[in-house]
UniProtKB/TrEMBL annotation:
<keyword id="KW-0406">Ion transport</keyword>
<dbReference type="GO" id="GO:0016020">
    <property type="term" value="C:membrane"/>
</dbReference>
<protein>
    <recommendedName>
        <fullName>Magnesium transporter</fullName>
    </recommendedName>
</protein>
<feature type="compositionally biased region" description="Basic and acidic residues">
    <location>
        <begin position="171"/>
        <end position="183"/>
    </location>
</feature>
<keyword id="KW-0813">Transport</keyword>
<keyword id="KW-0472">Membrane</keyword>
<dbReference type="InterPro" id="IPR039204">
    <property type="entry name" value="MRS2-like"/>
</dbReference>
<feature type="region of interest" description="Disordered">
    <location>
        <begin position="1"/>
        <end position="39"/>
    </location>
</feature>
<feature type="transmembrane region" description="Helical">
    <location>
        <begin position="442"/>
        <end position="464"/>
    </location>
</feature>
<comment type="function">
    <text>Magnesium transporter that may mediate the influx of magnesium.</text>
</comment>
<feature type="region of interest" description="Disordered">
    <location>
        <begin position="164"/>
        <end position="187"/>
    </location>
</feature>
<feature type="compositionally biased region" description="Pro residues">
    <location>
        <begin position="1"/>
        <end position="10"/>
    </location>
</feature>
<dbReference type="Pfam" id="PF22099">
    <property type="entry name" value="MRS2-like"/>
</dbReference>
<keyword id="KW-0812">Transmembrane</keyword>
<dbReference type="GO" id="GO:0015095">
    <property type="term" value="F:magnesium ion transmembrane transporter activity"/>
</dbReference>
<keyword id="KW-0460">Magnesium</keyword>
<comment type="similarity">
    <text>Belongs to the CorA metal ion transporter (MIT) (TC 1.A.35.5) family.</text>
</comment>
């Protein structure tokens, strides 16, 4: 009985074997009759890919495809996740640089740049500027390659014999380094930054410019509002200042995080060396080629060693026993894989980070200036708050003084109220007898009570001022 083979399960978009595919044309619509059908797999996002020539292409890729193409771990890709909130970060890895600066989320390699949120309106100017810079870098590189092809500064003869290659390995290494160093320079002497530094500079400039523009806008709104609040304290002015202060705190935190990230990179040379992707790739290729050449020389010399006489073999054995470099070379041939694995760890120690340090310092100074402006504005807000509190305390003191004066007046008037209460009683006294007392006596009584009340009030106020209560 013949059984039908079971078809393999369909691969998801996150499968590592699924390649990055271009996004279909937006005008084409794909309809599906299956209810609940999902067009995209979990974790598949649209990336804008910029190659080394400045051409752009929209691609859809899952995180596993991006990890395989850039060599990044999954925890580094979480930094770019738009559903998660991560602060500004710049990470240098073996084959890529992860950028998360404000609205810019990108992965930079030695040959291409991946942008995550390229459809954001705030990112569109940055995409155009980055594309322009990459295209200018491509043109400068082509012009430099043409100048190097026409020049005859460095000539390597392909007909060198085996003895010259053995006796002068150090000179060849120095020539290779000189050639690589010249490759980074234009014919006029100016250096051409590698692609990763061109993209990194564009990201830093866009982020720093965005923060600086927000700080400038906040300054233009804050100073008039604070001055208006100083002249007139009202609920509307207080609400405006409260909103400005909330924005100030938020933007200060963002600027401070970018500044701390740049300061951390400037303080750690190893982190900066990790961002030299092009030079690391060149050094790794040169190390691999030199090890392959050494293995080829060993294979060439091996038949000659087999044809030697026993006397020559014994003499060569004694010479290798006395030579200090013989054992490491023999061990190196047996541990070819070990040297290859340790090459990457030693590459960063051989790189000069002065070029990247100067680039980062320029934007560190810019972001530090923005932070100083925000700090000055924060001090102005604090000074305004202190001034308003002083004004409110002064008004409160005036109200307390008025309360003391009114309370004292109420107290002394109470004495006159007692006199009026006595006259209001239904009793018979001589003052009320019309035959014995007249109107003048009544007026003198009222006038004397009023005068006494005023005299008591003046005495009470004078005593309060003497005790510094008023």
């Amino acid at each position: 009985m013949r059984t039908q083979p079971t078809p393999p399960p369909p691969k998801s978009e996150d499968d590592p074997d699924v390649p990055i595919r271009p996004t279909p044309i937006p005008n084409q619509t794909v309809t599906s009759t299956v209810p609940g059908h999902r067009k995209k797999g979990t974790g598949v996002r649209a990336w804008l890919l910029l190659d080394s020539t400045g051409h752009t292409q929209m691609v859809e890729a899952g995180k596993h495809a991006i990890m395989r193409r850039t060599g990044l771990p999954a925890r580094d890709l979480r930094i770019l996740d738009p559903l998660l909130s991560y602060p500004s970060t710049i990470l240098g890895r073996e084959r890529a640089v992860v950028i998360n600066l404000e609205h810019i989320k990108a992965i930079i390699t030695a040959q291409e740049v991946f942008l995550l949120n390229s459809k954001d309106p705030s990112v569109t100017p940055f995409v155009n500027e980055l594309q322009r810079r990459i295209f200018c870098h491509y043109q400068a590189t082509k012009a430099q390659e043409g100048a190097i092809d026409d020049s005859s500064c460095i000539i390597r003869s392909s007909s060198q014999n085996l003895s010259a290659r053995i006796s002068q390995p150090r000179n060849q290494d120095e020539e290779g380094k000189a050639e690589e160093k010249q490759g980074l320079e234009n014919p006029n002497g100016s250096k051409i930054l590698p692609l990763e530094f061109v993209a990194l500079e564009a990201c830093l400039e866009a982020a720093c410019s965005c923060l600086e523009n927000e700080a400038r806008t906040l300054e233009q709104e804050a100073y008039p509002a604070l001055d208006k609040l100083t002249s007139k304290i009202s609920t509307l002015n207080l609400e405006r200042v409260r909103q400005i202060k909330s924005r100030l705190v938020a933007i200060t935190g963002r600027v401070q995080k970018v500044r701390d990230e740049l300061e951390h990179l400037l303080d750690d040379d190893e982190d900066m060396a990790e961002m030299y992707l092009t030079e690391k790739q060149l050094l790794e290729n040169s190390s691999t080629s030199s090890m392959n050449e050494r293995d080829d020389m060993d294979e060439i010399l091996q038949p000659d060693m087999d044809d030697r006489t026993p006397a020559e073999i014994s003499l060569a054995t004694n010479f290798q026993g006395d030579n200090l470099f013989g054992a490491p070379n023999a061990i190196g041939r047996d541990s070819h894989g070990t040297r290859t694995s340790t090459t990457r760890s030693t590459i960063s120690k051989r790189l000069d980070v002065e070029e990247l340090e100067m680039l980062l310092e320029a934007y560190f100074v810019q972001i530090d200036g923005t932070l100083n402006k925000l700090s000055t504005l924060r001090e102005y807000v604090d000074d305004t708050e202190d001034y308003i509190n002083i004004m409110l305390d002064d008004k409160q003191n005036h109200l307390l003084q008025m309360g003391v004066m009114l309370t004292t007046a109420t107290l002394v008037i109470s004495a006159f109220i007692v006199v009026a209460g006595i006259f209001g009683m239904n009793i018979h006294i001589e003052l009320f007898d019309e035959s014995k007392a007249g109107m003048p006596e009544f007026l003198w009584t009222i006038g004397g009570g009023t005068t006494g009340t005023i005299f008591l009030y003046v005495i009470a106020i004078a005593w309060c001022k003497y005790k510094r209560l008023l």
